[in-house]
Amino acid sequence: MGVHDGAGPTMTVDSIRNLPEIQRVPWYKWFIDYDPSADIAATRCPVFALNGDHDWQVISSLNLTAIKRLLPKSKKNVTKEYPGLNHLFQHCTTGLMNEYRQIEETIAPEVLSDIAEWINGL
After folding, report:
1. What is the mean pLDDT of residues 8-25?
2. Those residues with Cβ within 8 angstroms of residue 41's Cβ, 6 or more apart along the chain or in another chain
3. pLDDT tens digits for 78-116?
C-alpha cells in the first residue's frame, strides 16, 4: 500500500514513516512527525473544524476529539463530522485517494451550507 492509497486502519506511524514515498519527500517526513497540539491550544480566532468520517488521511474521530479538547473554550468554536464524506468532503464509497478522481462532486453541498451558516453566525 502506498501513501496515495490512504493509511488504512492497520498502519502505524512507524510503518508510514518507512513507506518509500515518505522517505523520498522531506515534507512528508516533517508532516508525519508534526504535532499541532500547541498551535491548536494557542488559537484565539473562532474555529470550525470539520472532517469526513471516510477520510483515510485524517482520522476524523481522533482529529475532532483532540481539536475540541485543545481549543480554548468558545461558543464560536464548532467541530463536526460528516458521515460518508472523504478527505475532500465528497460523498464517497471507500474514501481512498484513488477514488477522488472518479467522483464528480467537488464538495458536498451540506459542507458549503454549514460553512456559510457558521461564518454568517460570527
Report:
1. 76
2. 70, 71, 72
3. 999 999 999 999 999 999 999 999 999 999 999 999 999
Partnered with residue 79 across adjacent β-strands are 49
Distance CA 15, CA 81 (A): 27
- CB contact at 8 A, 54 and 92: yes
Q: Three cell numbers at 86?
A: 472523504
User: Cell digits for 122?
Assistant: 460570527
The answer to whether 56 touches 97, Cβ cutoff 8 Å, is yes
Burial class (CB in 10 A: 0-12, 13-18, 19+), 40: middle
Grid cell of 76 as nine digits: 464560536
C-alpha cell at 27: 515534507
User: What percent of the chain shows pLDDT beyond 90?
Assistant: 67
pTM: 0.79
In the numeric block, which cell numbers belong to residue 44?
A: 484565539
